[in-house]
Amino acid sequence: MRADQSKLAPMTPCSVERMHELAGQLIVAQETERERLARELHDNIGQGLAGVSLALSGLRRRAADHDPARLQASLTELQRQTMELAETVGQLAHELKLRGLQHIGLIEGLKLQCTDCRHEHGLDVTLDAPADLAPVALETARCLFRGAQEALRNVAQHARARSAKVVLSRGDSAWTLTIADDGVGFDVARMGRDGEGVGLLVIEERARLLHGTVHVESHSGRGTTVTMTIPETAR
Fold first, then answer.
1. Residue 87 contacts residue 80 (beta carbons within 8 Å)
2. Which residues does 147 contact at the CB level (< 8 Å), separation at least 6?
3. Tens-digit pLDDT profile for residues 69-87
4. 201, 193 in Cβ contact below 8 A?
5. Which of 18, 49, 136, 177 has a 20 to 30 Å separation from 7 between CA atoms?
6. What is the CA 39 to chain-centroid distance, rounded?
7. Does residue 156 contact residue 120 with C-beta atoms inside 8 Å?
């Protein structure tokens, strides 16, 4: 492994700058694509599945007139599965679109994210955020929410943690979001190598677009702490 690493050419300032530029463009493109996909899911797929469910309901009634018990049971099960799929698509569209942040606010969005993480991954996630925090600009809220979302995804998939804590606070001139877990930790120096820590690099690029910073601290067997700071002037 060391022999392979020694062959890596050092990155020049120009290449690093270009990498940051491309990463920033990628993040903007991802947000645009998420908005488009959310509209597609809601307007086309969701309504289409609802139509299929109605058609199956009518077919089930027609089948019942001839009393084909087995066919009716199969169609009933198919209808149930279709409705569950439609509900899943709706939930996915809600997550991707993120317009809910405009209505429910960042704190409520973080609460929902923590709840989803508990239900989906069995992770004990808590949120510490004062209820009287001032409103957050939409782009800042989006950045902080995505940061928490990505960090919690990393915890669930890689940290082998039992618990995590999300803390949101506001200082004199900046918002600070901290996600800490009690997992196995990792070597921060290897972030970006061999695909390690890609999610954290994405968090860094999101913060950079709003002139913010991200600090990652991790120790073997003692978990990882990710701290994102976004200036109050960010919009």
1. no
2. 177, 179, 203, 206, 207, 214, 226, 228
3. 767 776 777 777 777 777 7
4. no
5. 18
6. 18
7. yes
